[in-house]
Amino acid sequence: MVLDDLGSSLRDSLGQLSGQSRVTEEDVEDIVKEIQRSLLQADVEVSLVMDLSDSIKERALEEESPAGTSARDHVLSIVYEEMVDLVGDSTEIPLENQTILLAGLQGSGKTTTSAKMAWWFAKKGLRPAIVQTDTFRPGAYDQAKEMASRAEVDFYGDPDEEDPVEIARKGLEETDEADVHIVDTAGRHALEDDLIAEIEEIERAVEPDRNLLVLDAAIGQGAKDQARQFDDSIGIDGVAITKLDGTAKGGGALTAVNETDSSIAFLGTGEEVRDIERFEPSGFISRLLG
Ligand code: GDP
User: Fold this and answer.
1) pTM of the model
2) In the chain, at which end, N or C, are there fewer CB atoms within 10 A of the end residue's CB?
3) What atom in ligand 1 is closest to the CA of residue 217?
4) Where is the Signal recognition particle SRP54 helical bundle domain (predicted)?
């Protein structure tokens, strides 16, 4: 991490350490305060921010800076290491045959993410297929089909079939030439029992290799209940954060990651199929602190 990756106030606080060989408790307090401000603004949960603050304070005051390292660079590296610990590594997504199930509330960006992920896998040389099982939201079928054609990937859906489990089962059969199956599911406005029962049935039918929870970057602390419930029902292996091209920084998703003991897999940065990035800690950290 370099100073440029940080927000201007934090950069100023760290800049003041320039030339100092030791940091004082007051210096550390100032730096931690700036970090807290940025992270809380980015929707990171208070308890996570407090844990991070304690670790940074403790290490910055107790650890000697290695010979030849300035106090500023030493604190900077502690901040970075602790931030990496907070945001975690990227969810492992092997480039091999697999089935991925997407879960999340309506409007979180599941359908868009399924097409983006399919495009991403196609770019990596695999043959992906999207299986669209959302029979709840009007227009989901047309939207998914259109996006699949833009991503130039295989697609299965059936606007005349009402049973999503049947669509899922048939979808896997009909697209058996594909290497990677991405199964999009229906969301609801809130977590209702029928949504959970439905996704559990789909999960049993398709036996996915991994389940990803799709979260809008603006979710804030609402992520907690969702993450808990989806994790209890199907198990969550990773998170995809959408709409990071907006003003929200996505810190709420860290609550979901923490709650499900998982990690972040993908970031969505726009409405087009190409607007997807693999999660990578340093860029996300700069965004949170920026
Ligand atoms: P679903 O109900 O979970 O399937 O959500 P959709 O995929 O239909 O997405 C809901 C809305 O969010 C649509 O208008 C999408 O175009 C939009 N959307 C999804 N992902 C992104 C993103 O990364 N950036 C932006 N700006 N819009 C997005």
Assistant:
1) 0.94
2) C
3) 23
4) 2-87
